[in-house]
Design brief:
CATH superfamily of one domain: Alpha/Beta hydrolase fold, catalytic domain
CATH topology of one domain: Rossmann fold
Distance between the termini: 45 Å
Structural class: alpha/beta
Shape: globular
CATH class of one domain: Alpha Beta
Number of helices: 7
Strand content: 15-25%
Helix content: 10-25%
CATH architecture of one domain: 3-Layer(aba) Sandwich
Radius of gyration: 19 Å
Oligomer: single chain
């Protein structure tokens, strides 16, 4: 196993990095790094993934766009041996496991278990860690099936899912509890790698969708564009996001019983009412809570991100 090294600080340390071997043309292979840091939220050493795309080592002058991905509730862990669970979903899975040549440096942290929803615990056995094959790619998992018909209806009438008690935007802990650590990871990548500070994008699914709205509202100037998937934001933040002219593409699942579509409609309507100039809202009517699988498997979101820079907003 190849080992890389870098330095930096977060409240105390950043030292060791390790990478997994990648199979590609010499000088152009992609690379998956584990970066260590000290977490002020847990008072423990933790790690996060940084993915360097195909061509990064070969193109010495190019600056690459950056994508911060926030996973869902089910992939929380200790940031050590649990970290590989963040490979289950999202753009990092697409790039590393499915070997897609996504032109982004991808940052993928893991949320500590302590910042979870009471009564909704982890079951990692339901999401086995995907393996990067020496040749080819593993079969995709299309596991979510729903008996709800494809029929536009009031999602308040859907059968209750595990989060139905929240009735929209719940007041819970989550990614916002480690917001300083997330910014530290972004700043470390901008400093230590050939990354473009004007093209930093933010996306997340479910719990990470809520986290995406959290981070966007708290630091709207840090992102060139955001894409929360099956997660919504606080109505009170709509004006701030609209005034920042931050491009937003929201996604929902038409059959979603976990984060019901009408919760997302409320936030989309609030953003539109505040005059947001760059809002997109897509509901995949035939998809359940895992609508992110289709979104990240496609090309549209990645191409849309690259239309925007921090100094080029609508």
């Amino acid at each position: 196993m190849k080992t890389c090294f870098s330095t930096g600080l977060i409240l105390s340390i950043l030292v060791s990095l390790s990478s997994f071997p990648a199979v590609a043309e010499k000088g152009s292979a992609d690379q998956l790094l584990k970066l260590s840091y000290f977490s002020s939220a847990t008072q423990k050493n933790r790690e996060y993934f940084v993915y360097l795309p195909v061509g990064y080592k070969k193109s010495q002058e190019k600056k690459w766009p950056v994508m911060l991905f926030l996973h869902g509730h089910g992939q929380r862990g200790n940031g050590q041996e649990d970290l590989d669970y963040v490979l289950v979903h999202g753009p990092l899975m697409e790039a590393w496991i499915q070997r897609r040549e996504l032109p982004f440096i991808i940052i993928s942290p893991q949320l500590p278990v302590k910042f979870g929803i009471e009564g909704v615990e982890e079951d990692h056995s339901a999401d086995p860690i995907p393996a990067r094959l020496k040749k080819g790619v593993p079969e995709r998992n299309y596991g979510f099936k729903s008996p709800i018909p494809i029929d536009r209806q009031n999602s308040e009438d859907f059968p209750d899912g595990p989060h139905s008690q929240f009735k929209g935007y719940p007041d819970f802990d989550g990614w916002i509890n480690i917001h300083e650590e997330l910014l530290y990871m972004v700043d470390t990548v901008l400093k230590e790698y050939r990354a473009d500070s004007d093209r930093v994008y933010l996306t997340g699914v479910s719990y990470g969708g809520y986290g995406t709205f959290h981070m966007a509202a708290k630091y709207p100037e840090r992102w060139a564009a955001i894409a929360p998937i099956v997660g919504t934001g606080k109505i009170v933040d709509a004006k701030k996001l609209a005034d920042a002219r931050l491009p937003i593409w929201m996604f929902g699942g038409g059959k979603d019983r976990t984060v019901k579509p009408h919760w997302l409609y409320q936030m989309a309507e609030a953003l539109e009412s505040e005059g947001h100039p760059a809002l997109r809202f897509t509901v995949h009517e035939d998809m359940d809570h895992d609508a992110w699988k289709r979104v990240y498997e496609g090309e549209d979101l990645y191409n849309w991100f690259l239309r925007y820079t921090s100094n080029k907003r609508p």
